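re: that chain from earlier
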Amino acid sequence: MAVVAAFATAAVVSSCATATKEDRSVHSSGMSTGAVAAHDADDIQFAQLMIPHHQQAIEIAAIVPGRSTNPTVIALAEKIAAEQQPEISTMKAMLVQWDVKLESHESGHAGMAMQGMVDDATMVKLDNLRGADFDTLWLQSMISHHQGAIAMAKTEIADGTSPDLIALAKNIVTAQQAEIDQMKQMLGA
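^ sequence. v structure.
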């Protein structure tokens, strides 16, 4: 029985690797939990890239309380972290359900094709600034970061298959655009 299960798993994995987008839209496993939710390679890539993208946003948000005295900036940073951590958990759960390895992205996420990531030089500047100068650079950096996330989410909406991940991507677009608008107002004030 184990040999049959191993062969079936190998066949599914092999067919998924060479299938066209249309053929890849639904994967299933013989797991006792039932069929795996519909997904494709675009869904997997989006989740694998958005997880570290969100993790960086949380890292950037975490430095705000020690560097900013602006209660609005502090509250926004807390809100961003509170919104993005559950999204990370959801995407990790989806990858586990799809039996996809969670990628490990070390050293500032170098080399990954993600828009809006804050570079190391800017992170060093943020670490060294305080007060209004910090707030300005933090807001500019987070606007760019959010714009990158929105671009990634729009690609998922257009190309993905997973209804759950597409719904999450739509929420990312809506929430982060509202935060961009708020941050632009804060910069203009």
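The chain is about 70% helix and 0% strand.
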